[in-house]
Amino acid sequence: MIYTEQHKELMRSVTKFCQTEINPHIEEWEAAGAFPAHELFRKMGQQGLLGINKPVEFGGLGLDYTYELAFCEAIGSIRGGSIGMAIGVQTDMATPALAKHGSDELRAEFLAPSIAGDYVACLGVSEVGAGSDVASLKTTARKDGDDYVINGGKMWTTNGTQADWMCLLANTSEGQVHRNKSLICVPMKTKGVEVARKLDKMGMRASDTAQIFFDEVRVPQRYRIGEEGKGFIYQMEQFQIERLWGAAGGLVAMETAINDTIDYTRSRMVFGKPLLDNQIIHFKMAELQAKVEALRSLCYRAAQNYIEGEDVTMLASMAKLIGGRLVREVSDGCLQYWGGMGFMNESDITRMYRDSRLTSIGGGADEVMLQIISKYMNILPGSKKEK
């Protein structure tokens, strides 16, 4: 995959938006523990940035996924992971299944205002006892007439305190755990939906994260996305996109950290000469840059395969695994050369160090990525090659 001039122009526009509308407010939003999602998303919606690869009939631009990847990459110019993560939930985690499988009526009601930035979306998958193990979730949605009645709860819900609706994964029947789940659009102001608490996190502090409870929450069955019982499959499809976002979203951020560290060590004098005048720093920065470029190539390959209709579960899992580990390596390696300043919360590299830890956890932990890759390699116990 090679970016065209149109891709590059999109990236320039997104980068400019981040630099003017987001970066000046990062410190304020970090201190507040949240950012004004409706205000920011409306601005993004007005520029067509929340529906780049979504259907034009619902307000999207109708472009292929490579443009969404370019958007994701440019979002990495935000000086902190929180806002990019929240944007990613809106564009690539809570809405892909709705865009692909939802009825026209449902897409008009939930997708169109999400693309416009009038609605803030959140994703309801993880629970206290079911994080990476999605099949074990306990939230239920039983049928009652033409409605579903939902009971249970969700944990670690990004955008949860501000969201207008949730893309909820719930058990809609008994039976096999991979075939008894459905995705349902749940308006957050529905009676029985409770934002139990706003969570206090180590990093990603400018993004609000919530624990949500559902007590006899009644929504019409027409709010179901696609077929009943296909929710687990739809969510696995969404995970492909979420994991590519997790990998590609860190590319520019890692390059920024490397360049910032080069600039800082060039200006910091130690024993009468710039700190940068040490070969160990030259080699470390070069090695990190090489690894970032290798990850970029993997993301591009996965994106190209995706628009060609291929299953990219294995490539997306590889990118997520490598991206999560690399962003930690970059933030830790760079922070070391900032010395005492690297330990101060006022430094961008310190924020990256805190924020980056989530990439190896959210959207499926590293160990789950390894399990998925092993499955596709046919080396798990019980696989054809193992037998």
Tell me the span between the first and last alpha carbons. Answer: 37 Å
Give the helices and strands as they follow along the chain.
Answer: HHHHHHHEEEEEEEEHHEEHHHH
Structural class: alpha+beta
The CATH superfamily title of the largest domain: Butyryl-CoA Dehydrogenase, subunit A, domain 3
Descriptive overview:
It is an enzyme of class 1 (oxidoreductase). Its cofactor is FAD. The chain is an alpha+beta fold and 387 residues long. The chain folds into three domains: 5-120, Acyl-CoA dehydrogenase/oxidase, N-terminal domain (Butyryl-Coa Dehydrogenase, subunit A, domain 1, Orthogonal Bundle); 123-227, Butyryl-CoA Dehydrogenase, subunit A, domain 2; 250-376, Butyryl-CoA Dehydrogenase, subunit A, domain 3 (Up-down Bundle). Helices cover 48% and strands 15% of the residues. Helix 1 packs parallel to helix 4 and helix 11 (313-336) packs antiparallel against helix 13 (366-376). The longest helix is centred in the C-terminal third of the chain and has 29 residues, at 279-307. The protein is globular, with a radius of gyration of 21 Å. The protein starts with a helix and ends in an 11-residue tail after the last helix. The relative contact order is 0.11. The mean pLDDT is 95.
How are the SSEs ordered, and which strands pair?
Blueprint lengths: L4 H18 L3 H7 L4 H10 L18 H11 L5 H13 L2 H6 L2 H13 L4 E4 L15 E5 L2 E12 L6 E7 L9 E7 L5 E6 L10 E12 L3 E2 L5 H18 L2 H17 L1 E2 L2 E2 L4 H29 L5 H24 L11 H9 L9 H11 L11
Summarize the structure.
With 387 residues, the protein is α+β, with helices and mostly antiparallel strands. Helix content is 48%, strand content 15%.
